[in-house]
Design brief:
single chain; 175 residues; alpha+beta; Arc Repressor Mutant, subunit A; 2 domains; 3-stranded antiparallel sheet; cytoplasm
């Protein structure tokens, strides 16, 4: 897990208050989207729980005593949903899955790795993909299992792979 480099806005108190001016608000939301994706990439996390954001250093800058309100976090997550970088995990939209690559991009990254490393026509366990010795230098190493499965489903849809999930066995066959 890496160390996050906070952008200058993170120490700027108005960054934690939704701006009323349309152009400023758009820039602010874009900066928050970038920060959230970078934070989740660096920390290898994937789930945002709106009910727990007060304890997250991402949404709570204690050095300037500022917190991003949950309503604003929800607006940003909705924007990430539109760009294919987040999806709600429940109907009340309290828990979200966030991914710094879209699911299709993740699928292609994993598929390209499988092709380049001779795994076409063979089966890999999901554990091997995210925790195996062959993937320690890959961006998908340590990837959240929900994000992994969802990205592999995009490969299934394009007939590049088949998920194999039964009992406690989870794997993928690459074509």
């Amino acid at each position: 897990m890496g160390e996050i480099e906070w952008p200058w806005q993170y120490s700027f108190p108005p960054f934690f208050t939704l701006q009323p001016h349309a152009e400023t608000k758009e820039k602010q939301l874009n900066a928050w989207k970038s920060l959230i994706l970078e934070y989740y990439r660096t920390t290898k996390q994937a789930v945002v729980d709106i009910r727990e954001i007060d304890s997250s250093p991402l949404f709570n800058n204690t050095s300037i005593n500022r917190k991003l309100p949950s309503e604003v976090v929800l607006i940003i997550l909705e924007e990430l949903y539109k760009s294919g970088n987040a999806i709600p995990l429940d109907k009340s939209k309290q828990r979200w899955l966030v991914y710094w690559h879209t699911l299709e991009e993740w699928g292609e990254i994993i598929y390209n790795w499988a092709q380049e490393n001779g795994f076409a026509g063979s089966v890999c366990t999901l554990f091997e993909l995210t925790q195996g010795e062959n993937t320690t230098d890959q961006e998908f190493y340590g990837l959240d299992s929900d994000v992994l499965i969802r990205s592999l489903r995009t490969l299934e849809a394009s007939k590049k792979a088949e998920l194999i999930i039964f009992d406690d066995n989870q794997g993928v066959k690459f074509f």
